[in-house]
Amino acid sequence: MLTSYALDFNKLAEVVLAYRSSKPLLVALHYDLFSHIARGKDTPSLLGRGLGLDRRALTVLLDALAALGFLSKSNGAYRNSRLASRFLVDSSPDYMGSNLRYQELTWDAWSDLRFVLKTGKPRRTLLDWIQQGFFTPDYVKAMGDVAREPARDLARRLDWTGVTRALDIGCGAGTYSAAFVERAPRLSVVLLDLPSTLKVTRGLLKAHRHGRRLSFRPADYLTESLGDGEFDLALLSNVTHVEDEKTNRRLVAKAVRALKPGGRLVIHDFVVNEDRTGPRFPALLGLHLLLFTGKGAVYTVKDYAGWMRAAGLGRVVSMPIARQSLHPSTAVVGVKPRP
Ligand SMILES: C[S@@+](CC[C@H](N)C(=O)[O-])C[C@H]1O[C@@H](n2cnc3c(N)ncnc32)[C@H](O)[C@@H]1O
Question: Which amino acid residue places its CA nearest to atom 12 of ligand 1?
Answer without folding.
Answer: 170
